[in-house]
Amino acid sequence: MDAGKRNIAFPIIANYNCIVKFFIEKGMDLNYIEQPKMTRRTLDVGTKYSPDYVCAPFKSTLGSMIDALEAGADTLIMTMGLCRLGYYGELQEQILRDLGYEFEMINLASYTTGNVKDYYKAIRRLNPKISLSRFTKAALIGLKMLEYIDEIEALYYRNCGFEVNKGEYRKAYEDFLMAMDMVNGRKDIERQYRKTRNAFREIRLDKPDHPIRVGVIGEYFTVMDDFSNLGLEQMLADMGVEVHRWMNPTNRNLHYKGQKNLGVQISEYSRFEMGPTSTANIWCAKNYAENGFDGLIHVKSAGCTPEIDIMPVLENISRDYKIPILYLTYDSQTSDTGLQTRVEAFNDMLRMRRAAI
Amino acid sequence: MSKKISIFAREDREITVGLPRALLYHRYEILWKSFFSELGVQCVTSPRTNKAIIDRGIERSIDETCLSTKIYMGHVDALIGKCDYILIPRISNFGIRRFMCTKFEALYDMTGNVFRGSGQKFLAYDIDVVKKTGEEKAMIAMAEAMGFSRKEGKNAYKAAKRFENDDWKRKVREEERKLRTDQIKIMVAGHSYITEDEYVGKPVIRMLEEMGVTPIIADRIDRKEAIRQSARISPTIKWEMSRELMGSIQIRRNKIDGVILLSAYPCGPDSMVNEMIIRKFRGLPIQTIVLDTQEGMAGLETRLESFTDVLKLQRGEL
After folding, report:
1. Which of A247, B179, B215, B216 lies 20 to 30 Å from B131, alpha-carbon distance?
2. Could you tell me which residues of chain B have a Cβ less than 8 Å from any Cβ in chain A?
3. Where is the signal peptide (chain A) (predicted)?
4. Does the distance separating the beta carbons of A313 and B235 come in below 8 Å?
């Protein structure tokens, strides 16, 4: 850690903090403070200082910010967003200041003016001497990392439930994530990616021709963050299910087909865009149903308005395609035993249904 | 009012449009009603919210959705089959940082999916200023969807807008007049679909009046000024209606004794904005009341009474 440089932190979000780290250290030449992985304490502290019925990601990200400040961060970055997320930054900053923390806040929401160039101002504020070429290069490599992480993660959850020797997939996957945390440049990333793909290929699988397939859809944050959804995908995979999840930054942001292209495919269900990820989720649910998936799981945090609003649509899809949907709502108190029971029952039901048909 | 238009509508067959008396109805009542009357279209409004409407609404809603939406579904249900179209707003935003709760973005399609198979036709009032669909365009689109010409729609909109502006000025003046009394003045800060709702907000306002308090309705304010003021307190606040409320508190904070933040469970924007208001307006007495479908007003009355007593104590009247 170099003295005299800013110590920057970002709330923990799924597996993506290694990208933020790479970007800040390599692209902006600043220190990145890595807070410890989220624990129950993170969530408890976050919940304690949060308003009562705000959505759960607010609480966990607030807790994560406190973790970061305690680990020595002096600058926090918070993202903008299209739902309540867009107001997270300002309220969290206010709460932290009222608690007495001293730090600088870069809230991307306050740079959201309709002009993309204004985000550059935020970057200039972080490091006024930034080199544009270095920054662009790091950004492009960061995007590549994002694609690889999403690809490896998708492969992992699709197959890890069928390995012959338990734990092989997990090991290769964890090695990959750890390596991503320490990469130095483009070549490094490519090498780690290929290594992991090869390692995955070597693992012996005992997979039936038509395994039970479940599509996981839902709210952007909770569906991706395995701490927040209490390891839902792993739980399913361990029951011998092929788990599919379309929703990740690669698909939703980087290669998003847009409202025009997706909206037209779900026009019988919705005429307008219903919320930030609504079109994607409805399209996804319909797509899974059409491709003969056994069931869908809809994940959201308690009070997530856009996801609650698409539930009537999902119910209609479930009716039209005769596909069962399990609705899961997570708040800061959810215990994983209750979840385990519900997911097990859902899995049993899917298998019985398969046997009957 | 152009005679030709009304003859056209009447000759054909009188069109009726249903307006559910919930959510944005209270905000757009004058605009919509005068627009339809200019076009010679008959308006049917659902009755004031009552127990039966709420119960029907709860039956048709996802249980996690907010009380206001449940009430809305009840109102739509009451209109099904009683009119040619039911008007349903779909409002995304009025510009950058002037968004609506995502509820209003989804409302049209959500209602359509809930009442799928009822055979009812819906009329969309679609506003998305970021994507270049403003109020005028939305109104004209509604007229065109009912078979009127663009020109007829435009004229009716112009007239309706005039009515709305006059009415709004009158309402704001009335609120300003109330600020001049010597009574205890409590600002009731809640979305218009809470404060104006017969079953949810009106009882609170009536209770306050019975206690000898003058309730000031927060969102009856010069909206432009309120939005400007709110940006000074909380720059990234993104919901139009929350901005109006926050700005209104800022503008009138020295003329009122206290504020009641009135919201319905679980309102998304309020869950955050109310917290910010409490943190930003230190020194101003604030009471938060979150309403649900619970019955029995005794608990609520006690809370209002004790809040009023605190304010009286502060004034030295107790």
Report:
1. A247
2. 62, 64-66, 90, 92, 96-97, 99, 101-103, 105-110, 112-114, 116, 124, 126, 130, 234-238, 265-266, 268-269, 271-276, 279-280, 290
3. none
4. no
